[in-house]
Amino acid sequence: MKEAVQQVLDGDTNAFREVVKRYGPEVRAYLASNLSDYQTVDDLVQETFIGAYNSLERYEVDSNFRAWIYGIARNKLRMHLRKIYRDKDRKEQLKIEVIEQLATAIDENYNDQDHVRIQNLRECIELLPEKNRNIIKSRYFGGSSVIDLAQKLQRTENSVSVILHRLRIVLRKCIESGLRT
């Protein structure tokens, strides 16, 4: 390998192909053992060899080339992971800011009429027959899907959708009548 490195240093850029051919699979395996995204692995392998080529004049020919190239790969991996964590922190911070802004907007827009409507909705749900009340509660408060409800009620999904639609109409009318009083 010393000969190939020396040839590159002497100006034969094609000799670097031997370096890549010899150490490429090892560097790829090292990076792949630390990352799950193979596209990123390929990118870092390429960056490693570009970095090695650009820094070859600083390599001491009598030293261990494998350790040197692995050091470059390790540094590329560290820089990549730092970037990921920085980006992740930024995304988390952005999520927090958006949630805070939404909460503020909701608080600002939440008024007494909304409170009355919510209270009326609760009362209207309680006025429904038990079977219908359970369907509404399962769907909108329990997180059941239409498919789950259809299986539970032994009905088709379409019929459950129609039942939910009709119940929403009943609830809307009940809420509206409660707001007028």
TrEMBL record:
Question: Which PANTHER family does this chain map to?
Answer: RNA POLYMERASE ECF-TYPE SIGMA FACTO (PTHR43133), RNA POLYMERASE SIGMA FACTOR (PTHR43133:SF51)
RNA polymerase sigma factor 70 region 4 type domain: residues covered = 119-168
- Which InterPro entries did the record assign? RNA_pol_sigma-70-like (IPR039425), RNA_pol_sigma-70_dom (IPR014284), RNA_pol_sigma70_ECF_CS (IPR000838), RNA_pol_sigma70_ECF_RHOBA (IPR014331), RNA_pol_sigma70_r2 (IPR007627), RNA_pol_sigma70_r4_t2 (IPR013249), RNA_pol_sigma_r2 (IPR013325), RNA_pol_sigma_r3/r4-like (IPR013324)
Domain RNA polymerase sigma-70 region, first and last residues per copy: 20-83
Transmembrane annotation, as ranges: none
Q: Which UniProt keywords apply?
A: DNA-binding, Sigma factor, Transcription, Transcription regulation
Family of the protein in this entry: Belongs to the sigma-70 factor family. ECF subfamily.
Q: Pfam families, from UniProt?
A: Sigma70_r2, Sigma70_r4_2
Presence of keyword Lipid biosynthesis: no
- Protein name per its UniProtKB record: RNA polymerase sigma factor
